[in-house]
Amino acid sequence: MTTVPTPSLAGEVDFSPEPRRLAGLGAVAPALGLLALFFVIPVVALLLRSVLEPQPGLQNYAEVFGSTTYLKVFGNTFLVAGLVTLVTLLLAFPVAWFLAVAPRRWSALLFGVIVLSMWTNLLARTYAWMVLLQGTGIINRMLMQIGLISEPLSLINNLVGVTIGMTYIMLPFMILPLHATIRTLDPTVFQAASLCGASRFQVFRLVFAPLVASGVAAGVLMVFVMSLGYFVTPALLGGTSNMMLAELIAQLVQSLLNWGLAGAAALVLLVVTLAIYAVQFRYFGFGGGEAR
Question: Between the chain's N and C termini, which has fewer beta carbons within 10 Å?
Fold first, then answer.
């Protein structure tokens, strides 16, 4: 291999590979230090507590996978996350499409509303849904006034309330990647497909859907993973029969002081999340780009 000679004149920079490698490592050292401090060390500490408390062994993991109560919480967590992701995708798609094709004035206005909702305090938004969804809330009263129902619907402390509240909060995280993907599409591609005899359904299935698959994958991944670890909204809008894993971990730590079992549950959730990221990376690439 040819080596780059190092200039010997005073004041000249050494462009050999080794100094450049060291310089690059020094540039990212602060970021690596923060990553180790706030992610690696806490995860390792949690891992150690899950196998060392209350005594060394894997009894915490055996309890997590052997208890029907904990398995039910895991199942409910994935059910809620999947349902929220599906509903969010169905609602976000037409909004993202409108943002991409609407006149600039209307698009900017709606985009501002979406971004503003992300800046609003999460607790305030969740409490607002508690007021809207309760038996005497405006939703039930409107439905009763127009004659659709004769008595208030149960919209809170159940799966319905959790799904509504979490879908509202997750919508921007689905709309933004979808909008970014749709606005890059070339309309002439669809015109060419139509001129070649493709029907609207064929254009959607064979042309449009593959082109927006990366944006859909990015949005679905983001919403699903965030929903798996959500705590505030399920705790306030859900009931005990709809407990999610984040609520269980908080209860184990705050009420039962069982750090070992909480660590085991948290690490199982972390492994599942990393596995989902790996699948997304394998088929859609990093950040929803092209597949490798």
Answer: N
